[in-house]
Design a protein that fits this description.
- This protein has a single domain, classed as Rossmann fold, CATH 3.40.50.1820.
- About 40% of the residues lie in helices and about 15% in strands.
- It contains eleven helices and eight strands.
- It has an eight-stranded mixed sheet.
- Helix 1 links the parallel strand 3 and strand 4.
């Protein structure tokens, strides 16, 4: 059965393919593991591939709390332990980029390398007040509508319209307290440069990071890399879900980087 009891939650996951190194996919805020539908068949042809729905998201159970990056990472570490899988190549999008980084730092034996896709960290501290206003608006009213308005700004002119429709409709199905607590936990802590810059320097493994609109975050992250095989790729003009907008290119870049790690 594609469900695992981990602590206080029941996580939905899929486990496909075979081959080392195994690959773990972690979605972002208000999303689910369907986000990796463009990647799972490709990578499962040569690797064991695990894709998980975070607590409160998708088909996983919805507890009252625990919607912070470190708890998400602990859930995943527990799942990997049950599956006897690791160390993995941990690929995370947005909030998922924060989570896989926390997984590598807090549970280093579980992660061999990280691929971070337009991650939700190293945000300029000057954005604290505006994002605090978003959190307060989510608490005070329709959290889904506020989240839709906020994420609705993360598309480029070339972003396919059907992706935005899918993403916005999915937000509407996420419980209000999950939206509020998840967004609040990220932007009360590791989302901002003040908290994440030194924390990320604890990642000892190689890291491949994709940015759609880095705004200087690429240089900050590059300066903190601990493994010389780490790399940053910037795709200007692409929306936040760049792995869905340019899947063939994304998959090819990841394939090439992973091949370099093995050489």
């Amino acid at each position: 059965m594609p469900f695992a009891a981990v602590g206080d939650v029941r996580l939905f996951y899929t486990d496909e393919g075979s081959g080392d190194p195994p690959i773990l996919f972690v979605h972002g805020f208000s999303c689910d593991s369907h986000d990796w539908s463009w990647q799972i068949p490709h990578f499962a042809a040569k690797h064991r591939v695990i894709a998980v729905d975070l607590r409160g998201h998708g088909r996983s159970s919805v507890p009252d709390g625990g919607f912070d990056p470190l708890t998400f990472a602990a859930d995943i570490a527990g799942l990997l332990d049950q599956l006897g899988c690791g160390p993995v190549i941990a690929i995370g999008h947005s909030l998922g980029g924060v989570i896989v980084s926390a997984l590598a730092i807090e549970h280093p034996d579980t992660v061999q390398a990280i691929v971070s896709v337009d991650p939700g960290y190293l945000i300029d501290d000057a954005a604290r007040d505006s994002l605090r206003d978003v959190i307060e608006a989510m608490r005070a009213g329709d959290a889904a509508a506020v989240a839709q308005a906020t994420l609705g700004q993360s598309y480029a002119a070339a972003s396919p319209a059907h992706l935005k429709t899918w993403h916005m409709r999915r937000i509407a199905g996420v419980p209000q307290h999950v939206l509020v607590q998840t967004f609040d936990s990220l932007f009360s802590g590791l989302g901002f440069r003040g908290e994440s810059e030194r924390y990320l320097q604890q990642r000892k493994c190689p890291v491949l990071t994709f940015y759609a609109s880095p705004m200087g975050r690429d240089d900050i992250e590059r300066a903190g890399f601990q493994d010389p095989r780490s790399k940053i790729v910037t795709w200007e003009g692409t929306g936040h879900w760049l792995h869905q907008e340019r899947p063939a290119e994304f998959n090819a870049v990841v394939d090439g980087w992973l091949a370099g790690l093995e050489s």
